[in-house]
Amino acid sequence: MNRANRWLLPDGIDEVLPPQALQVEQLRRHLLDQLHLWGYDFVIPAALEYLDSLLTGTGEDLDLQTFKVTDQLSGRMMGLSADTTPQVARIDAHSLAPEGVSRLCYCRTVFHAKAASLLANRTPNQLGAELFGEAGASADVEIISLMLTVLKEAGCQQVHLDLGHVGIFRAFADKAQLEVEAQDELFELLALKCPTDLDQWADKYLSGDLLPAFKQLVRLQGGSDILDKAKSLLANVLPEAEEVIDHLQQVTSGLEARFTGEQAVPMYFDFTELRGYNYHTGLVFAAYVPGYGDAIAQGGRYDETGADFGRARPATGFSTDLRVLAQLGNFQVTESSTVQAPAANDAELLALIAQLRQQGKRVEVVLSGEMNSQQPRIEQQNGQWVLID
Question: Does the global pTM surpass 0.90?
Fold first, then answer.
């Protein structure tokens, strides 16, 4: 590398400088306080783990995102955490192993071998919450409500919510007795959201009543009114989907009861919205704001992950990037004025400086040059050190 370029950071990795760093840190503290008020206990998972634990139950996507290194002590492969959720699932299932409902939250840097999108950073500050031990719609309502509250507290405006459910297309796959290769092809096409390609896939693998029902379903997007349409469409073709749609309607009702009037959040339902299909097992959701092409927060249900750690537990959660929230929100930083103090070894002066700092004031000792007479400062008057505002 050219000596002149040694200071350059790798693509997709940046640093946060003043005053933005103060905004991110104050936002972190504020949001963790909100999570605490909702009953979520803070955990700090290891940044580095053995791969066989780190990637358990997460699928290929996270494997490709993970930086891998060799442990010099054991010779085993290790990875830098690319997603905190699986680690928190392990903590719930193995390290804590509580009975009943448990609520855990986190905020830490994770590491991506490749950026998740053109807008994403490779070292996001991932903040999130996970709820374990409850499979009902009430848990999904709580975790989505908490996510929306976090976005509101970060100052994000005009948030709208997208919802989907992997259960319907799992039911299609089971009913059609699809091979693994056909299922993988389906969910790759669903990610692209091209109806023509999905039609061609359906013509190849589906038959009977499943074929027209599938083609109609992939074109069915909109507000909560489409849930009844989906239920009617699938009633005779895929009756097991009724339970999935009932679940979505219960979640919708719960959210509408909690976010009313000016606080109401527009909801958009898209059955082809199946990010993390290999990882999620039920409801999936994402939050968006105008003018930003990626989800600013997302999550879903992942009931199977804990089983790989020896303790299957219902689980749902969400995560977001703290730096994205600081960028898109209007969170107001509380910034105290700086008090200047002279550099002297006077006991009374040092005691006053310590006292002001204990009171939460920012005191900067002027090591050289003159103090700024236009800002608060400590001066000696009549033999006494006093604060001049």
Answer: yes
